[in-house]
Amino acid sequence: MNDKAIVCACEDVSVRDVEDAIAHGFGDIESLKRYTGLGTGPCQGKSCESGAMRICEARKAVPPEAQVPFRARPPFVPTQLSAFAGLELPATGYRLPATRLRPTWGTGPHPLQPKTRLPEKVDVVIVGGGIMGLALAWNLAGQGPQKILVLERGYLCEGASGRNGGGVRAQWTTPLLIELAKESIDFMGRFAQELGINVWLRKGGYLFLAHDDDTVRRIEYGAELQKRYGLPTRVITPGEAGEIVPELDVSRFIAASWNPEDGVVFPWPFLWGYADGARKRGAQVETFTRVTGIDVSGGRVRGVQTDRGRVAADRVVIACGAWSPTVARLAGVALPNVPYRHEIVSSEPLKPFLGPLVSMLGTGLYFSQSMRGEIVGGMGDPDEEPGLNQTSSLRFMTRYARALTELLPVVGKVKLLRQWAGCYDFTPDRSPILGETPGVSGLLQMSGFVGHGFMMAPAVGRRMAAWMAGGQDEIFEKYGLRRFADGRLIQETFIIG
Amino acid sequence: MDRENHDTIRFSLDGEAIEARAGDTVAAALLRARITTFTRSIKYHRPRGPFCLSGTCGQCLMRVDGVPSRAACRVRVEEGMTCARQNGPLGVDNDVFRAADFVFGEGLDHHHLLTGSRVLGRVALEIARRLAGLGELPSEVQLPVPGQMRTVRVAVVGAGPAGLAAARAAGADLLIEREPRPGGSAWLRLDLAGPDPDWVAQQARGFTGELMLGADCVGLYPNDSALPGNALLAVRAGPRLVGVVAERVIVATGGASQPLPFPGCDRPGVYAARGLLGLSTLVGEKLVVVGEGEELGLCVTALRRFGYAIERAIDIEKIQPVRALGNPVRGLDTSAGERIRCDAVAIALPPAPLHELASSVGAHARWVAKLHGFAVQVDAGGRTAVPWLFAAGRIAGLSPVSSGEAAGRAAAS
Asked: What domain range is B285 assigned to?
């Protein structure tokens, strides 16, 4: 019998695993949870948060008074999908909740904010330590000596990069997105060798279901375009889809678009890998640091103000996802992006049964099975109001449970474990915003990925770094902010949610 | 413990017939039958049995009547029920995948496993995928179970001493309790000077609102429905969900028994002391009790009264257990160089405040080492940082009755 000292029995996390995580710099309980997986099993941390905290305390990982509990995620007791599916919420007068989610530490800077001083001057400040900013930092740092500073307001994974469902696909309806996704998925396949950490890319395919003739025409158009770009996408019958996922109720759709080479990843290690890699190449990545101002004079960006002081820089990149308009406003720049909440839920871990990520075009339902066996899925809400809202809702749980159990009836007695929300970063044409800002030289945009930035980031980061070094690349012209004023929109239609 | 004669009912485990007493949980019935391994753990396939015996840990998950991963300590045995152990494809007692526990003897760093080679990485992925997960899909389709919406002024979550006191003082409309009876820790008789079952009965009689028993409050949300009210509670009552819209909510969810991480601590035969005090059977004769401070003393006395012989009480501030011995655990090695034999080990650490409901909507919580947990921060009236949310009792690190009454009065005003 082996002598491991287990601290989280649900996920088999040992004291040694916790010590390793602390040694890697993940000594705050929220990051510790993500790095080790403790607290993500059926007990939801009720039996391990205390034990893990006691280890952190004994190892002096961070001052105990600076620790805040990891954000608790409902349902707090595993609860069957059939129970959620049966609750009809009278949501006719849907409105934003009167009470928004508050930080559990109160007001002011985050208790875990580093006490060290920031550099006075750097070459590039990247605002936003999500996958976009970190991928850019790693690529830039690989070009040779320049001072790069990434500023993240929370822990790594706090934003949408840590909140997405991990789907990666090349099934898009605009050539650029197909190209970016293909390069990114290829890079994900060798991420572990390049950056030394596993991201668990599992190519189980993507199955888009179409429930009406109009949607069938859309998937036929998409499959044709994708074929031209060398993808094996094809339109299949409900019967064929039923062979790929036998549990589907095939009467609920009339055709499907199938690409067996799309897949799912485990999102978090991308951030740790890129951050680690960037640091090894000399870049500085600072968490729990908030940008409070952007200095602009004479039509040029001059630096940023933060809650840890001022940093001068000739180039400032805004890579803040849904928060990009808020940050751009600090420089007096108006971005057309609009944030929308998007909710996700994870089920209890089940033995593997579901190969692909399945999505119902039209309702926005999607779900896949993670490497740990959970059914991870979400669903858009046509009544969602815009806003930077990361509150979880019961309404989402009931809508998702109804849609999922209709399409996959066998999961009625499967229990849901953990729900959370993140923000999509919507642009008017559903295409990203990249490159220079008209009127503010040196202020660069890297946002507007409408919920799929994660799967594009490896390629976008590489191309943006090359472009910033003086290389030619049409996407930074074509997808520039100027297009909205010029009326050169580029419509992408394959958006989930 | 109830020692009256009971009707015998029969159910099965992995196809073998087991006798239980009416009223037993599956966990109690199996322990009575001296079956201690309930499952294999998710990654290393280590043998696991129940720990908390009160539905807060995840160590006793079992397939019950075709439904995966139900907590054996929460499910009452019914005649003809079929239970099956999970995650041991060739039998839980002789699970071949337990090799994983030895191959990865020092632990498994899944982040950096085989990152050097793309081919080996793919092999690792395939193996990991096949070993992942716990339960199989349910055997039967379950259609949505119609739920219900209701509106109240004040709702209280938890009918232990704090919740009862709060509900009464607030004149609450609804008191939600996950156990089949109110009273919570008062039934354990840990503190003979504290609330006892008579006090519970008296409080329950004086409470004029509705007492919802056997109901888990699984979520607390800022209300975003069309119904008026600040809070929206998701309450699971049996197979259905009740949505409760409330103006004010008092959370008095108490604490959760905590394990103590030391080598072998997760093996069958290590139980939460409070869990044993709520169980309808004994798990042996002689116990070693490992714990800290006041909780250790209270549990030792109560366990003795319950019928156990206490072989040794170990205060971890002086001596630490360094290894649990056997499966099920039949002894301990200590840092004092002793080997102590017993029938089972009981852990008596202070139950950690169950802050989840409160902190999930933004109540502030601060680490309090003495409480072994994050305590919800409240003022003298039990008010949290969220204007409509109040907290009382252990989750706020306060004594139950007085803090319950204070929070109740504040919520009523």
From this structure: 270-348
Write out the E strands in A251-356.
Answer: 255-259, 263-264, 284-286, 291-297, 300-306, 309-312, 315-318, 338-347
Reported as a single tens digit per residue, the pLDDT across A418-475 is 999 999 999 999 999 999 999 999 999 999 999 999 999 999 999 999 999 999 999 9
Are B85 and B13 within one domain?
Answer: yes
Q: Comparing C-alpha atoms, which of A290, A337, A339, A381 is closest to residue A103? A: A290
Within a 13 Å sphere around the CA of B378, how many CA atoms are in the beta-carbon half? 31
Q: Are strands A365-369 and A357-360 parallel, antiparallel or unpaired?
A: antiparallel
d(CA A209, CA A255): 6
| pLDDT tens, residue order, chain B (413 aa) | 444 556 899 999 999 999 999 999 999 999 999 999 999 999 999 999 999 999 999 999 999 999 999 999 999 999 999 999 999 877 777 777 777 787 787 777 888 888 888 888 888 888 888 888 999 999 999 999 999 999 999 999 999 999 999 999 999 999 999 999 999 999 999 998 899 999 999 999 999 999 999 999 999 999 988 899 999 999 999 999 999 999 999 999 999 999 999 999 999 999 999 999 999 999 999 999 999 999 999 999 999 999 999 999 999 999 999 999 999 999 999 999 999 999 999 999 999 999 999 999 989 999 999 999 999 999 999 999 999 999 999 999 999 999 999 999 999 99
Q: Which residues are CB-contacts of A31 (< 8 A; sequence separation ≥ 6)?
A: A21, A25, A155, A156, A157
Q: Which residues of A touch B111 (CB under 8 A)?
A: 35, 197-198, 269, 272
Q: Produce one character per residue of B48-59: b if its CB has 16 or more CB atoms within 10 Å, e if not.
A: bbbbbbbbbbbb
CATH code (residue B52)? 3.10.20.440
Quick check: B365 contacting A, CB < 8 Å? yes
A1-31 b/e (C-beta count within 10 Å ≥ 16 → b): bbebbbbbbbbbbbbebbbbbbeebbbbbbb
B106 and B188 in one domain?
no
Beta bridge partners of A284: A149
Strands (E), B258-362: 270-272, 286-291, 309-315, 321-325, 331-334, 339-341, 344-348, 352-353
* B118 with A79: Cβ contact below 8 A: no
Same structural domain, B335 and B307: yes
pTM above 0.90, yes or no: yes
Residues of A in contact with B292 (CB under 8 A): none
Distance between A358 CA and the closest CA of chain B, angstroms: 17
Option in B136, B226, B263 nearest A4 (CB): B263
Domains and their CATH numbers in chain A: 6-71 (1.10.10), 73-91+109-202+219-230+242-252+262-497 (3.50.50.60)
Residue B229 backbone zone (phi > 0: left; psi -120 to 50: alpha; other: beta): left
CATH of the domain at B333: 3.50.50.60
Q: Write out the H or E segment, with its range, that includes residue B28.
A: helix B26-32
